[in-house]
Amino acid sequence: MLALDHIIVAAKEPKTAALAFASKNHIKTIEGGKHEKWGTYNHLAYFANNCYIEWLGIFNLRLAKQSENPLIQQLILALDNSEEGPIQFALRTENMTSFIKHFDTAMTPYIGPIDGHRKKPNGMDLTWQMLFPQPKKYFPFLIQWGNSMNVPDDKQLINKQNITNIATTLPVNEFKALYQHRIQANHFQLANTNLQFEEEKKLMFSISE
């Protein structure tokens, strides 16, 4: 089953935005690291239901603009329009190959898999792959981690709260066809949280203990 991996929040100053959110919601955040080839960097908050929030910003606009990563392109567009806040989320899979086969069979255009890499503050390498379905709207991308998932070395940095719900305006039927998952009453049950399809709302999420 697919799981929520993380929610991406566009931020001109990731640390500042993360600390403001942390103060309001009584959670812990930590420095993430730099994506050297994409010109981006992040600040993170981890949650008990095995997912996290990523405040993502740009430290080198030239590199970011050169990137063919759809997420980086989406981030640039959001920040250019002064749209700071949640812009995207990633769904975790352990079998990306099956989705590639599904997209090929359904003739769904996609970009990837794209290899990702950054160094954690402790110097360890973190690697992953991303797959971006490319219908007309920004649908969530799929992520599969390498030898280890993105979790803090100090388990005390994992917040006791959960990300309990995500609300999206994406079209239900197209979502169902892309990710081959049952949707009931506009709810899509992920392995670790609930995805709800709403009208006239931006991407939103809620956390609770």
From TrEMBL:
Leader sequence residues: none
Sequence ranges assigned to domain Glyoxalase-like in this UniProt record: 4-157
Entry-linked InterPro entries: Glyas_Bleomycin-R_OHBP_Dase, Glyoxalase-like_dom
Protein name: Glyoxalase-like domain-containing protein
Species this chain originates from: Virgibacillus kapii
Source organism, top-level taxon: Bacteria
